[in-house]
Amino acid sequence: MSTIFSTMSRTKKRALGAGVCLVAAAGVSATMLTPAQAIPVAQRSCAFDVAGNTAVNGWRPVNSFVTINNGATSRPVVVNFNADAGVDTLAEIRIGYRVDAGPVQTPGAQNFANHTEYWQTRHSMVVMTIPSGVHTIRPYWRISGAVGKNGVIASRCLTAEAYTS
C-alpha cells in the first residue's frame, strides 16, 4: 500500500518537514511570548490614609481587602502587603491574614516592623492555600509589646495573585 509520502521526492519531503517545523515554532512562540496579564481589579487594593493601633487592641483589620475566585479548585495564592510603618521602641508590628470570616492566620513571617528612627516602607509576602470558590482576603495587624506601645501604618497596598485565565 503506498502513501502520499512514498510518492513524494526527497526535496518535497524536506520542504514539507521544514514547513511543519515552522508552523510548530510559530505556535510555540505565540504561546510563550504572550505578555503576562495584569492583576485583576478585584485582586488589588490600595489605601492612603493613616491608621494607628496599640498593644491592648489585639488584631485589627486593615481597611484593604481583595477578592479571589479560584473556580472549582483549591489553589495556592500569593498575597503581598506593603505599607509605610512606624512603631514605638521595644515593640513590633505583626501581620496576619483572614479569609472570609475565618480566624486570623499567620502563614508566613509575622514580624512586619521593628522600631527604627524613621518610618520605613515594609513588605510582607505569604503563600496561602485558598479553597475553591470566591473568597475575600483581608490583612490584620497588631502591636506586639507592653501596654501603651503604639504603631502606625499608612499608604498601603494589598495584592493577591491567584489563578488567572
Give an overview in words.
This protein is mainly beta and 165 residues long. It has two domains: 34 residues; 121 residues, Jelly Rolls. The two termini are 47 Å apart.
The total of helices stands at 1
CATH names the topology of the largest domain as: Jelly Rolls
Q: Approximately how much beta-strand content do the residues carry?
A: over 45%
How does the major sheet shape up?
6 strands, antiparallel
Summarize, please.
The chain has one helix at 10-32; strands at 44-54, 60-61, 66-69, 75-87, 92-99, 104-105, 111-114, 120-130, 134-144, 150-161.
Sequence-ordered SSE layout with sheet pairings:
Blueprint: H1 10-32, E1 44-54, E2 60-61, E3 66-69, E4 75-87, E5 92-99, E6 104-105, E7 111-114, E8 120-130, E9 134-144, E10 150-161
Antiparallel strand pairs: 1-10, 2-9, 3-9, 4-8, 4-10, 5-6, 5-7, 5-9
Keywords:
mainly beta; Jelly Rolls; 165 residues; four-stranded antiparallel sheet; 10 strands; elongated
